[in-house]
Design a protein that fits this description.
The chain has four helices and no strands. The chain is mainly α.
Length: 117
C-alpha cells in the first residue's frame, strides 16, 4: 500500500506546484499567499509519504484529497484533478491493502509448507 499511496502523493506534489503557477495569474491573489498555501500542501504530500503506514495516515491522506478538490474554487481545473486524484487515492488504498493481504497469505503458506518438511 505504501508504494501505491506514495506514488499518488508524489503526483499530487507536482500537480499542486503547477496549480500554484496557474493561481499566480489571478490578480486577486498575492504571490506570497499562493506559494505559502501551495508550499504547505506540497510539503504535506512529502511528509505523508512517510506516514502512510502509521495510524491516521490514510485518513490524513483523505483530508488532503478533500483540500485538493476544494482548491478548485481558486483554480477551477483542480475540481477535475482533485476528483481524479481522490479516485487514485482510493485505488491506492484499496488495492494496496489487497496486495498486503495476499503477501501475508503467501508468507503464511510458505511458513506452513516449510514447517512440515
Amino acid at each position: 500500500m505504501r508504494t501505491l499511496c506514495a506514488s499518488t502523493l508524489i503526483g499530487e506534489f507536482f500537480v499542486i506546484g503547477f496549480a500554484g503557477l496557474v493561481a499566480m495569474k489571478d490578480p486577486d491573489l498575492s504571490m506570497t499567499m499562493v506559494w505559502t498555501v501551495s508550499g504547505i500542501a506540497m510539503v504535506l504530500c512529502l511528509l505523508l509519504c512517510g506516514m502512510i503506514t502509521r495510524p491516521g495516515g490514510v485518513q490524513f491522506g483523505w483530508a488532503l484529497q478533500i483540500a485538493l478538490i476544494g482548491s478548485g474554487f481558486v483554480v477551477p481545473v483542480m475540481f477535475f484533478l482533485g476528483v481524479v486524484f481522490a479516485a487514485l487515492w482510493w485505488a491506492s488504498v484499496h488495492f494496496g491493502r489487497k496486495v498486503e493481504e495476499a503477501k501475508a497469505r503467501f508468507a503464511a503458506q510458505a511458513d506452513a509448507g516449510g514447517s512440515t518438511a
